[in-house]
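Journal club side-thread
Mid-discussion, someone asked how the predicted structure for our own chain would compare to the paper's figures. Pasting it here so we can look after the session.
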Amino acid sequence: MMGSPSTNTFCHMVRNNLVNNCPVTMKSICMANDVFGPDVASLQGKMTRRRPDRVDPAFVDVPPEILARNLDVTVVADLMFVNGLPFLVTVSRNITLITVSYMPSHTAANLRKGLMQVVTVYRRLGLT
């Protein structure tokens, strides 16, 4: 049984005739590697995850044509609990902008503060 050998191991096996009745040549192994890339099964466990680039939460100006069509936005809000932690989720029905923010507690004062933060985001975008 061969499993999922790496490209180098498979080349070594073909070069030394370790696989009986194998019509594969070294050239076809190199061509397959160029076309399909390395075998995923042979890479699992051998590669480490690279740290992702930091996301910059920059605001982008909305084009005036889009603002003109979407001046009035209807926003719906709900509390969602994930593993017992409350999150305020808002969705705008017209432009489908979704916001999620963690709520330390689901008291009326904290919910009001969270909703005001969402309203600030919409105002910053130029929406009412």
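Post-session note: The chain has a mean pLDDT of 83.
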